Amino acid sequence: MNTLLWVIYPYLSLVILVGGLVWRYRYDKFGWTTRSSQLYESTILRWGSPLFHFGVLMVLIGHVGGLLIPKAWTEAVGITEHTYHLMAVFIGTVAGFCTLIGMGLLIARRRLTGPVFAATTRNDKAMYLVLAAVIVLGLWSTVRANVTGPGYDYRETISPWFRSLFYFSPDPQLMADVPVGFQIHVVAAFALFAFWPFTRLVHAFSAPVGYLTRPYVVYRSRGDQPGLGRTRPGWEGPPRLPSSRGDRTRSRR
Amino acid sequence: MRVMAQMSMVMNLDKCIGCHTCSVTCKQAWTNRSGVEYVWFNNVETRPGQGYPRTYENQERWQGGWTRTRSGRLKPRSGGRLKKMFSIFANPKLPSMQDYYEPWTYDYEHLINAPAGDDIPVARPKSLLTGEDMKVTWSANWDDSLAGGNEIAAGDPVLAKVSDQVKQEFEKTFMFFLPRICEHCLNPSCAAACPSGAIYKRAEDGIVLVDQDRCRGWRMCVTGCPYKKVYFNHRTGKAEKCTFCFPRIEIGQPTICSETCVGRLRYLGLMLYDADRVAEAAAVRDEHDLYDAQRSVFLDPHDPAVVAAAREAGIPDDWIEAAQRSPVWDLIMKYEVALPLHPEYRTMPMVWYIPPLSPVADVLRETGHDAEEAGNLFGAIDALRIPVDYLAELFTAGDPAPVRGVLNRLAAMRSYQRRINLGEAADESIAAAVGMTGAQMDEMYRLLAIAKYEQRYVIPAAHAEDAHRLEKIATECSLDYEGGPGMGGGGPYGQGPFGESSGTPVPVQVETFHMQRNRQTTDAFTDPGDEPRRVNLLNWDGKSTPKGLFPPRRTEPEHTDGSKP
């Protein structure tokens, strides 16, 4: 059971994530969009969306810090477990609640605004369910263990296990004694990863960082295939003499 | 000097009767899909009026276009790169559906399905966003021809800029129509606002397009465009905009809006410009200088140095030759009668307008004067601040001088040609009064009044060795479309296995391309002198073959095909 949950399942989900993204990028670039509903409603969105997105970005940074950076490293630069714990719990809880409130607003808006609800697909609903589950479970485990409870140092167990996935020497034993709340959170998170490429969440992978460095106006050449016509594979038109230089691409003009 | 070619348009507003044919045919061609019901790549606005979307010209509110920074550089008015990134989760300046209008259809089915009763069933309007009943309160041209009166027209942001006295007179005096498409700017602020880099300007012909595969729906372009001519498809979550009908332009056909324009008021042609000087020209300090700055960017295609540089830049000879014949060049540079729309947005728009003289003439006529007399017209243009100031706010960032110049030239042409029309001697002094010669007056008159199809639309076909793959030309076997006879689909020329009209239909373009072109470029009927042989179709019962209904081919032998005995 341990092996299934903490070795096979995470790998499977990561493979689906990467494979799914590649597949979606190759065959459904057109569907790769935020599918924003701001046109329908923007008063609630103006609060909910930034709250959720900035919150979730903070949560992401927190997870990177907590899961990928080994405890030994932070201690080496002089951050004691107590300091780290305080920081993580404080910032993490704030970010978590921002995310939760933002998501609450967005889901309420989605259900209550007529046009937005009409534009919601089944896929969206399922995605919201999984996403909400992951966020609520994560927040709930953190709050229960570290705010109201005695504190739980996941950097001794979950983090090494998570990193071990990437060394390709997974150690399921580390996860065996983790509190159930965290366990479910992790399982749900990997379910979300597997679902990710097939939902509108893909837009997260097209965060436009290139915008910061590119020139304002983009010029592009018309390219080899003008107009609306598509060439079917294997039907490139009548036979043509190979060009003297031997290259298959033809000069533009 | 870096020479680039730009496909551009000029519209002669004096000829626009506001029939919306351009809008309708454009919609049929491009946006008759769900998700873009509210999208009008081409719309016709009544001026004064709020425009579409409502009050889009109020850049204080919508933050479109560029703004000049204190250091003399340009940045998008809605904010630079960092600000865009931070407002990406909820664009604060996006027009809502209500600023356009809520698209609707009618419940036609109810007319048939309604149970028997005392009342006549009606087709209620249903929202295309929610499917619920709705009340229609606004549309793309709700204020057409000043409908709604001053209450609506008073919301015109351009009107707000002219003085109160002018405003009051204005409301009494005139209106005109302003057809608008994407401006395909030299310095497009929609492209600058796009975080994904999906909006690009085509290097060959300057057409600004959205790459549908790269658009991620961040919707910053809608804010970035001051003309609000980029629309968000609310179904697919992608931006869409006027394409300048590039598939037609590429094979030398005019855009749909030009093709179907009833008033024949649109002109299409190439402009060569110096791409290196665009940024500098768009950033001149004084807004009033923007009109001249943009004109200074254009390169004279008759200048041998420019021709050499254009060749250097890889522009083919027939394109250069087309640029020399370009009616757009003549209207903008030679006769100086075309003006850009809102140059103060600093995007260097490339759809220009000849401002309407008719309002001035109308006022003159109403006051009992001879509206065609040069002296009267010149005087009226000087005296009537109303149209001039308003037009200046539209076309020259508020500077009345260029507008006055254009109207004077149009007025001079009108009275010069009137004399000729009445059989009087041509009066060179009228031409001289606006710094032109009689011969130039004649040429301009020909271009504005009687130019034929080929003179109005000078469009060199795209140069691509595989342009034959374009949908509309059939240099390959025309039967090789999906499932067609060439692909194993059936008998000769579009006939399926069970005779004519069986099988899939032939792509209409293949058949009609030459016929269409023929029809567009000819003035005569196909067969002049065939009147005696014409048949009244209303009397024909479809059974007999009246003589002359199917004329024999004149040049080739009778066409024989297998299906007809």
TrEMBL record, chain A:
Residues 2-222 form the NarG-like domain. The chain crosses the membrane at residues 6-23, 44-64, 84-106, 126-143, 180-198. One of its GO terms (biological process) is nitrate assimilation. It comes from the Bacteria. It is a multi-pass membrane protein. It is found in: Cell membrane. Keywords: Cell membrane, Electron transport, Heme, Iron, Membrane, Metal-binding, Nitrate assimilation, Oxidoreductase, Transmembrane, Transmembrane helix, Transport. GO terms for molecular function: electron transfer activity; heme binding; metal ion binding; nitrate reductase activity. GO terms for cellular component: nitrate reductase complex; plasma membrane. InterPro entries: Heme-iron_electron_transfer (IPR051936), NarG-like_domain (IPR023234), NarG-like_sf (IPR036197), Nitrate_red_gam (IPR003816). Its cofactor is heme b; Mo-bis(molybdopterin guanine dinucleotide). Pfam families: Nitrate_red_gam. Residues 227-253 are annotated as: Disordered. Heme b binds at H53, H63, H185, H203. In the C-terminal section; belongs to the nitrate reductase gamma subunit family. In the central section; belongs to the NarJ/NarW family. Does not seem to have nitrate reductase activity. This is Nitrate reductase-like protein NarX. It comes from Micromonospora halophytica.
TrEMBL record, chain B:
GO terms for molecular function: 4 iron, 4 sulfur cluster binding; electron transfer activity; metal ion binding; nitrate reductase activity. It is found in: Cell envelope. Residues 518-565 are annotated as: Disordered. InterPro entries: 4Fe4S_Fe-S-bd (IPR017896), Nitr_red_bet_C (IPR029263), NO3_Rdtase_bsu (IPR006547). GO terms for biological process: anaerobic respiration; nitrate metabolic process. Residues 553-565 have a biased composition (Basic and acidic residues). GO terms for cellular component: cell envelope; membrane; nitrate reductase complex. Pfam families: Fer4_11, Nitr_red_bet_C. The keyword Coiled coil does not apply. It comes from the Bacteria. Its cofactor is [3Fe-4S] cluster; [4Fe-4S] cluster. Keywords: 4Fe-4S, Electron transport, Iron, Iron-sulfur, Metal-binding, Repeat, Transport. Residues 7-35, 173-204, 206-235 form the 4Fe-4S ferredoxin-type domain. This is Respiratory nitrate reductase beta subunit.
